[in-house]
Amino acid sequence: MSLIPLAQLLACERPHDHPVAFSDNHTATWAQFQHDVSSLTAHFEAKEEQRWALAFDDSYLFATAFLALCHARKDIVLPGNLQPGALNELRPHFDAIVHDERIQLLANTPAVSLPNAELNAQANLSHPAPFDAVTLTLFTSGSSSTPKAIVKQLSQLQAELNQLEFQWGDTVSNTRVQSTVSHQHIYGLLFRVLWPLSAGRAFSCSDLVYPEQVTAAAQSDATLISSPALLKRLEGQCKHNEYRAVFSSGGPLPFDASTHSEQLLGQRPVEVYGSTETGGIGFRQQTLSTQPWQLFDDIRAELDEHGCLRLLSPYIDANAWYQTADLCDLINDTQFVLKGRADRVIKLEEKRVSLSEIEQRLCENTWISDAASLVLSLDERQVVAAVVVLSPEGQRKVTDVGKGKFQLALRQQLRDWLEPIAIPRQLRFVNAIPQNSQGKRQKQVIESLFSPASSTNE
Description:
Elements: E1 19-22, E2 27-29, H1 30-45, E3 51-55, H2 59-71, E4 75-77, H3 84-89, E5 96-99, E6 111-113, E7 135-139, E8 149-153, H4 154-172, E9 176-179, H5 186-199, E10 203-204, H6 211-216, E11 222-226, H7 228-231, E12 245-249, H8 255-265, E13 270-275, E14 279-284, E15 293-295, E16 300-303, E17 308-313, E18 317-330, E19 335-341, E20 345-348, E21 351-354, H9 355-364, E22 368-378, E23 381-390, H10 392-401, H11 403-414, E24 426-429, H12 443-448
Parallel strand pairs: 1-10, 3-4, 3-5, 4-7, 5-6, 9-11, 11-12, 12-13, 23-24
Antiparallel strand pairs: 1-2, 7-8, 13-14, 14-15, 15-19, 16-17, 17-18, 18-19, 20-21, 22-23
């Protein structure tokens, strides 16, 4: 089944019983989807509010609301966090909210609840959706304390969907889509909902939350949309079956996790590199620990004078170069190596220190499986600190010698690679680096581990 542009999707001919989305006890068909979008479109057309926030756990209900808002010429807002406090913080960005009753509503905010809204009329969806009249607002999440609004045109999303189908359409043809990531963020929006909808692949209404759910759902006719946050937690799981394809985004996946995914799920994950601002930039499938990234075919890249990536991309603005803060080496016109973020290069006592390099050197140590570094103000001076996840070998070392001697030994080993000013002065041991559901590290939570109120484990 070929890719149908989103603007023409509701008018396309598909069998009435063609599956659109599935749950444990129900499958939504194409006929039901057309009916639901038509009814909801008429409902939105009668509303005066222009900017609508979508707040859904259920991906099928999300998809119906998304397409209905497009056809009703309403602007769409996607909060990345559905907690009441986070929604209230974004309240200036939307006029009303449509939801599936799994969120706590905001006071004095017009709302439509699905599936319980009274939908009596039907809209005519035989004409293309007016994409040019609709904007989509998403928000950056993870490292920053205040979400930043990113406005996109739906034509930019369509350009990216076309590229995904060109790149992997044959691979995932006739599969069912399982996911561990939310449709409220751009990666999940594209890979979990819009791409399957356009290509006629059924997607799951709900998330796979736990590693054992991921392994249990593996089938040769299933595609998994996931992230490093979950794929790194598969250690100790039992193999049930194999997926046709596995995708990961939200950050680079450690090579060991890629290898373990292949052993457990039958596939090395296809990693997709990009951001809310840029959309997809490139991809890789790690058969080597030094595997470079491959640019998508419709993207051009160059480096600025600081070695940071600049992009010419139809997912941003096809006519203007976009400057990133990603430090890279270009191997050739289509391949590159990521070296970290320029905004993570800091000055301490007039010396340039890369927080990304500190994390890399920590993770190269056999005692450490993951690490996050940051800068703290201590006694009126700035020092480097780190949160680390111990490997089994590191745990045994701590048990044998104690935390104090372990930290001294670790710092001594880091001296082979780092200047003294860059060696972490404070360490915290955790079971996992704090991340959100998209695999983005939560800077505020990491910083809080060093607050006086938190228990010390130096």
